What does this fold into?
Amino acid sequence: MNFLYTRFFFLFDLSQIYVRVFPLNYPTKVTFLNLGKNFLYYFLNTFLSVYRSDGFLYNIKQTINSLLILFSFIIINVLKLLYIPLILIFYFSKYRFIQINHYQIGTVCEDLHRQVKNNYNRGYKSIILIPKLSKFSFVKKIFKELIIIDNIFLNIILLPMKHTSLISCKFEETNINFNSKLKQRVPNPWVSTIIRYRKKYKNKNIHTFNKKFTEEMRLYFKKNHSNLNISRLIIFHHREQFYGRTGGMRGSHLETYRNAIKYLLSKNYSVIRLSHSNGKKFLFKSKKYVEINTDLRENQLLQFYVLSKCKGFVCSPSGPGSLGPVFDLPCFESNLPLSNVHGLNKKSIYILKKVKLKNKIMPYKELFKIDNYFQGVIYSKKWNDLGFKLINNTSKEILEGIKEFIKLIENSKSPTSKEQKNFNRLMPNHMDIKWSGSNISKYFIKKNSKLF
It folds into this structure.
């Protein structure tokens, strides 16, 4: 059953949200042309691999897969024609769907944040389809004001409507897209969504919890983590260097965070690390430090609760990091590869990875000149092939950044730093970081002054 569910919703749901076009592997919107490019690429590679004696079975599999995706795209669009009367009725209502990707915690949180707010900006309430068989269907019991449909039959029946742009927030409205030259569409659409929301609704919270969920989690936390002070709680999540066999673009080394965590504990903060079954253990003698395995359902729920209560979120560019914007948390984010930042307020601090090209560390000013292209290189996963090397932050950079972060969240005032204003002038307008409100670490600028 789970295999059929995964296969069906991949073909008729996830593959209709966005597509990676090969051979450049850049994310962009789903069109007949883009899907056709993928089919032709793998179809031709199948013949070529016979003569090269490599990758034949892989290319056969991808050819069949791309053909099935193309057929499912055609089927969805034929069904849209049959749904026209219902679509028109829905068009005049106060509701809109969102094209949520319910396969990963990061995409779930991003879409619940970005797409829901995009609909809200236009005066619509969001209808969110997350089938019960999805491992993230539990979010239905968390949020009070979100309309989440988990019935599998309704999820299937409503798929053509979810993928009708007339009545749904399109993926490309709130996510970065690229063209065949790896050029990013500017300005970044989700940045403008958040700016409009802030101007129109200020601090209005549309991600409030159900009372039952809140009480259950309060009791669960009290029973299992009574040694932690929730009023001085810091949540920590780290993405490992090659997590899930992925590249090192967003990952880093866990040990470089040890001194920073020791500092937090010395300042009488309690620390919860969000980890997983296969995660490397990070041990400290203090009873104020615990690790919770978010593969377990109760901890999947608990992470939402503790994040809503914490003083700050120490994270990296990762899926769980996307929970930060949902609760507008003060975030300290390290090892950023010049991508979007999760701290969207003046209480947040970030530090960047350094970028080396042909054995030379590039000044950020030079990177910004090619940023539109460089982001395409990053998102297409071609950065390593083209000679770009990403250098992780050091233990010292992370520790000093944490010290600045603690001073910032303990201070009632949080003006934009002089360093941030100067750095903002360097950044092109389409960059997320420029408009986030977050501050770059003063120590990081001072230590790497030649790069600024």
In short: The mean pLDDT is 88.
